[in-house]
């Protein structure tokens, strides 16, 4: 149980990448008690969190009553909804990409609404931080749409429009592209042995890169402890809002290899690799629109009241990230 002298943060998805980072960060803060929500408290990952001092409770985003119990007396909540846990197995079961996307979208939006409804009923709540993506379809005037982006932006709209009192206590974090994202790692051509990128955008395309394991927790802490509610933060690592030409140059410098770059279309890359358009259209969108296009009043890391220390993408590669990318 939490000490009366400590504030409580409830972390949804604590055994995942983002939630794990938030958990580890707040466990290191003496004035916080961390409550990890999980569907299976007996799992190895959940027990590992308990051994670090976290309170582990059973809750399911599909079960509103379990969320209400788990949020009891919380001062802060971190919410991250998951599209891929429905999309990938649904695709594997034989459904087509559109059907899979719709089912995953509906599940994610339902889960996000459930969490918002439960959070709105917590009288002690001071801050909800939701991990989102921008309104792709709206920002592109309908030219681009993916269910993954649409689900998260729909949850933001629901909080802002349908839960006005909760919205007054909410902040949104927009994490940049993960540093382990396949888009930012060159692939080896098995015929030539050479490395290169084949992507649905140009070298001039700019996007933010973030280490979600290192950075999510510290950025969320800043939103909870330092910033006013309503803050919208585009979160990325130091010196890592890059055009892709710079990404290629960084890879060349770190590996000593000649890294090639070829621009193609999302459709051609889909036909070549089988990678779902649900993923590839995100890249095509970023080739024409800013990462957080359509999000009003967003701030970037340098505008935070207290600086969050992070490693640049280049530094991360040099200090061990290269091994994680199998290059």
UniProtKB/TrEMBL annotation:
Q: Name all NmrA-like domain ranges.
A: 6-297
Please provide, in alphabetical order, the Gene Ontology terms of the cellular component aspect for this entry: nucleus
User: Which key words are in the record?
Assistant: NADP
Q: Which InterPro entries match?
A: NAD(P)-bd_dom_sf (IPR036291), NmrA-like (IPR008030), NmrA-like_oxidored (IPR051164)
- Annotated coiled-coil positions are none
Superkingdom is: Eukaryota
Family per record: Belongs to the NmrA-type oxidoreductase family.
Q: What is the name of this protein?
A: NAD(P)-binding protein
């Amino acid at each position: 149980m939490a000490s009366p002298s400590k504030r409580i943060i409830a972390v949804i998805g604590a055994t995942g990448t983002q939630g794990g980072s938030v958990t580890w960060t707040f466990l290191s803060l003496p004035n916080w008690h961390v409550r990890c929500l999980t569907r299976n408290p007996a799992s190895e990952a959940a027990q590992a969190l308990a051994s670090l001092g976290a309170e582990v409770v059973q809750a399911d985003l599909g079960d509103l009553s379990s969320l209400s119990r788990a949020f009891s007396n919380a001062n802060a909540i971190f919410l991250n909804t998951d599209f891929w846990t429905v999309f990938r197995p649904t695709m594997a079961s034989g459904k087509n990409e559109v059907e899979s996307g719709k089912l995953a979208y509906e599940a994610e939006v339902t889960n996000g609404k459930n969490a918002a409804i439960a959070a709105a009923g917590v009288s002690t709540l001071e801050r909800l931080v939701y991990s989102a993506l921008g309104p792709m379809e709206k920002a592109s005037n309908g030219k681009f749409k993916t269910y993954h982006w649409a689900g998260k932006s729909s949850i933001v709209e629901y909080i802002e429009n349908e839960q006005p009192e909760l919205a007054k206590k909410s902040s949104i974090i927009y994490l940049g592209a993960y540093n382990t994202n396949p888009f930012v790692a060159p692939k080896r051509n098995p015929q030539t042995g050479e490395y290169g990128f084949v992507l649905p955008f140009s070298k001039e395309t700019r996007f933010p890169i973030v280490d979600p394991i290192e950075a999510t927790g510290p950025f969320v802490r800043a939103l909870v402890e330092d910033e006013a509610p309503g803050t919208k933060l585009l979160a990325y690592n130091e010196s890592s809002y890059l055009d892709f030409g710079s990404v290629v140059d960084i890879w060349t410098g770190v590996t000593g290899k000649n890294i090639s770059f070829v621009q193609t279309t999302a459709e051609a890359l889909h036909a070549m690799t089988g990678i779902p358009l649900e993923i590839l259209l995100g890249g095509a969108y970023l080739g024409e629109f800013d990462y957080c296009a359509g999000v009003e009043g967003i701030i970037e890391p340098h505008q935070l009241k207290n600086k969050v220390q992070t490693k640049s993408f280049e530094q991360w590669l040099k200090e061990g990230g290269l091994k994680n990318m199998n290059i």
